[in-house]
Design brief:
Oligomer: single chain
Strand content: 5-15%
Structural class: alpha+beta
Bound molecules: FE2/S2 (inorganic) cluster
Largest sheet: 5 strands, mixed
Strand order of the largest sheet: 2-1-5-3-4
Distance between the termini: 40 Å
Radius of gyration: 20 Å
Number of helices: 7
Length: about 210
C-alpha cells in the first residue's frame, strides 16, 4: 500500500465512524431529554440492564440556517449535511462525488469556513451559518466575483466539481492562500476535477485574488 493510501483511507473512514458515533451519542442525549434526564430518573427504579436504550434511527427535529434562510425537518440523527441539503431541502448545488471526504465536490461554507458537507452531520450544523453555491450570488442576481471569474476563464467543463471548487476558491482567497499559482494549487488540492480544468481554475482564483488585493 503506498503512502497516500495509508494516509487517506483510515483517516476518512475513521473520521466517518467517529462522526456517526458522535451522532449516536448526541442523539441519545437529545432523545433522553437533553441531559439524560430519563435515564437518570430510571436509574433510581430500574437496574442498568432494564434501562431503555434510545432508538438511534429515530428522527430528531433539526433546524438549519442555509443561505440566510431557516430550514426545518425531522432528520435521522445520522444524516449528513450533504444529504440533508440535497434530499430534504432541494439544494442540489453541493455535489456528492466520493461521499468519503476525498474529492471536495460537496464543499460548503460553514460560519465562513470551507467544510466538507459529506463529513458534517446535519445536527452538528445547527446554529451555524451554512452557505451553498445557491446562496453565493447577490439577491439581485449579480454573480459573486468568483462565479464570474470561473465563467471568464472557462474554468469548468462538465461542471460537476464546480460548486465545490468555487466555494473552496472563495475560502482560499479569504484565507490569504492565493498568492501564487503554486499556493493556489496547494490550497485547492482538496478539490478534484475529473475534467482536469485545473489551469483555468487557478487563473480564475488568481484573478479574484488580485481584485481583492490579496
Ligand atoms: S463528496 Fe464530500 S469530499 Fe467527495
Ligand atoms: S469540470 Fe468536470 S469534474 Fe470538474
Amino acid at each position: 500500500m503506498d503512502d497516500d493510501r495509508i494516509k487517506n483511507k483510515p483517516v476518512s473512514e475513521g473520521r466517518r465512524r467517529f462522526l456517526i458515533g458522535s451522532a449516536h451519542t448526541g442523539a441519545a442525549a437529545l432523545l433522553l431529554g437533553g441531559g439524560g434526564g430519563v435515564a437518570t430518573a430510571k436509574a433510581g427504579t430500574a437496574s442498568t440492564s432494564e434501562q431503555v436504550q434510545p432508538d438511534i434511527r429515530a428522527t430528531i427535529p433539526t433546524e438549519l440556517n442555509v443561505n440566510g434562510m431557516s430550514h426545518r425537518a425531522d432528520l435521522d440523527s445520522r444524516m449528513t449535511l450533504l444529504d440533508a441539503l440535497r434530499e430534504k431541502f432541494g439544494l442540489t448545488g453541493a455535489k456528492k462525488g466520493c461521499d468519503h471526504g476525498q474529492c471536495g465536490a460537496c464543499t460548503v461554507l460553514i460560519d465562513g469556513r470551507r467544510e466538507l458537507s459529506c463529513l458534517t452531520l446535519s445536527v452538528a450544523a445547527q446554529g451555524r451559518e451554512v452557505v451553498t453555491i445557491e446562496g453565493l450570488a447577490e439577491n439581485d442576481g449579480r454573480l459573486h466575483p468568483m462565479q464570474q471569474a470561473f465563467i471568464d476563464h472557462d474554468a469548468l467543463q462538465c461542471g460537476y466539481c464546480t460548486p465545490g471548487q468555487i466555494l473552496s476558491a472563495v475560502s482560499c482567497v479569504r484565507e490569504g492562500h492565493a498568492g501564487s499559482s503554486e499556493e493556489i494549487r496547494e490550497y485547492m488540492s482538496g478539490n478534484i476535477c475529473r475534467c482536469a480544468a485545473y489551469t483555468n481554475i487557478v487563473a480564475a482564483v488568481a484573478q479574484v485574488s488580485q481584485q481583492m488585493g490579496e
